[in-house]
């Protein structure tokens, strides 16, 4: 991983110094990652590609303000995540429909299977969480972000992240009755 950061560091330094080929290499290295990250959040292939493209525009416009080129990856991912969350907020109804569809599809599975039943309960409970709690749950459990990474991504304190995660868990426990 350190070698990747070193490669990114050199590419960012080169681009900031005027080497446009360095940007082409950065795009080749990161574009798919951006699309995947956006897709994970918004669950829409076309929208995730648009978000990645929009993120590149922001990155290109602001790359000269990046003080530590070693942090390019986390800085760029934060831009992608923020744009994805913005799109998700705008399309929150579509996200709810996606979760509801997953819930409805799971009703066709074997009702006697305890795991299936628990999965349906969990999906339904997640629907009842606030958007803030849904995002923290998704980043922590599905993306395996650390509390610090979540706080940086969402631009909130670690304490706020812990609080949101705690309250989301409590609400899920109440809904599922664990």
From TrEMBL:
Q: Which residues form the RNA polymerase sigma factor 70 region 4 type domain?
A: 120-172
Q: A GO term (biological process) for this protein?
A: DNA-templated transcription initiation
Start and end residues of each RNA polymerase sigma-70 region domain: 36-92
Keywords of the record, alphabetical order, are: DNA-binding, Sigma factor, Transcription, Transcription regulation
Pfam families (UniProt xref): Sigma70_r2, Sigma70_r4_2
Domain of life the protein comes from: Bacteria
Tell me one GO molecular function of this protein: sigma factor activity
The answer to whether keyword Transport applies is no
Question: Which family does the similarity line name?
Answer: Belongs to the sigma-70 factor family. ECF subfamily.
What is the name attached to this protein's record?
RNA polymerase sigma-70 factor (ECF subfamily)
Per the UniProt record, the source organism is: Xanthomarina spongicola
Taxonomic lineage from the root? Bacteria, Pseudomonadati, Bacteroidota, Flavobacteriia, Flavobacteriales
């Amino acid at each position: 991983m350190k070698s990747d950061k070193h490669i990114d560091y050199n590419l960012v330094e080169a681009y900031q110094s005027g080497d446009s080929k360095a940007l082409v290499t950065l795009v080749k290295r990161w574009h798919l990652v951006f699309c995947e990250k956006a897709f994970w959040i918004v669950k829409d292939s076309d929208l995730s590609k648009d978000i990645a493209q929009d993120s590149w525009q922001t990155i290109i416009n602001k790359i000269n303000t990046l003080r530590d080129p070693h942090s390019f990856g986390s800085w760029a991912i934060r831009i992608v995540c923020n744009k994805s969350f913005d799109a998700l907020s705008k399309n929150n109804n579509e996200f709810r429909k996606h979760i509801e569809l997953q819930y409805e599809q799971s009703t066709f599975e074997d009702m006697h299977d305890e795991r299936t039943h628990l999965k349906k309960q969990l999906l339904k409970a997640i629907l009842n969480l606030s958007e803030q709690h849904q995002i923290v749950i998704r980043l922590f459990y599905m993306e395996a972000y650390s509390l610090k990474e979540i706080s940086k991504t969402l631009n909130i304190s670690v304490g706020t992240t812990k609080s949101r995660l705690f309250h989301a868990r409590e609400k899920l426990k109440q809904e599922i009755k664990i």
